[in-house]
Specification:
Elements lengths: L14 E4 L6 H12 L3 E3 H9 L3 H26 L4 E3 L10 H8 L1 E6 L2 H11 L11 H19 L4 E4 L6 H15 L1
Parallel strand pairs: 1-3, 1-4, 2-3, 4-5
Helix pairs in contact: 1-7, 2-3, 3-4, 5-6
């Protein structure tokens, strides 16, 4: 959880970063916080703090349905806590009318990345992500394609779309942050 105070007089509505795993939500959120001083939170960290355990442990102990309920409560709580930027989990928009809630409370920005870029990012990080850790390359490509098809109707309800293809180097992150700030903050 990243919190930084700022000196703004008028509170802004939260900006919710949504998109598939590997789209760059956490990377962009952290970079925006570091370069703007806005208060931000990664929803996964917020959930773990609320639950007192890791998401993986919560999921194993209570199952997906209970996790999605906790996720929705945590989303509403994070939004009410005054965070300027909230990086959501990849599935957050797809359950319990969360997309409707986010659009009502603030601005939703879908971090769009092609399937090929998602594959290249997730292939190197797969062992840190329990959902995909055991998938070989072919199964990982199918998983990405299938899940994107399933989740796109929710992601496409975002108020804005941002091309998050360029978050691989510090220079790319700097340029992406500048573009994001100009368009959405």
């Amino acid at each position: 959880m990243t919190e930084k105070n700022d000196n703004r007089n008028v509170p802004m509505k939260p900006v919710f970063l949504i998109g598939f795993m590997g789209s760059g939500k956490t990377t962009l959120c952290n970079a925006l916080t570091a370069r703007t001083g806005l208060r931000s939170v990664d929803l996964d960290d917020f959930i773990e703090n609320e639950a007192g355990m890791s998401i993986k442990e919560f999921f194993a102990r209570y199952g997906e349905e209970q996790f999605r309920q906790l996720e929705s409560r945590s989303l509403a709580s994070a939004a009410a806590s005054g965070f300027d930027i909230i990086a959501c989990g990849g599935g957050t928009p797809c359950f319990n009318n969360n997309m409707e809630l986010m659009n009502r409370l603030g601005k939703t920005v879908y971090l769009y990345v092609s399937d090929d870029i998602l594959f290249s990012r997730l292939a190197v990080a797969r062992y840190h992500r329990p959902l995909i850790a055991s998938l070989d390359d072919d199964r990982l490509r199918r998983f990405i394609s299938d899940k994107i098809a399933e989740r796109s109707p929710f992601y496409r309800q975002a108020t804005e779309i941002f091309d998050a293809s360029f978050l691989e180097s510090e220079d790319q992150i700097e340029r992406s942050v500048a573009i994001f700030k100009e368009k959405f903050l």
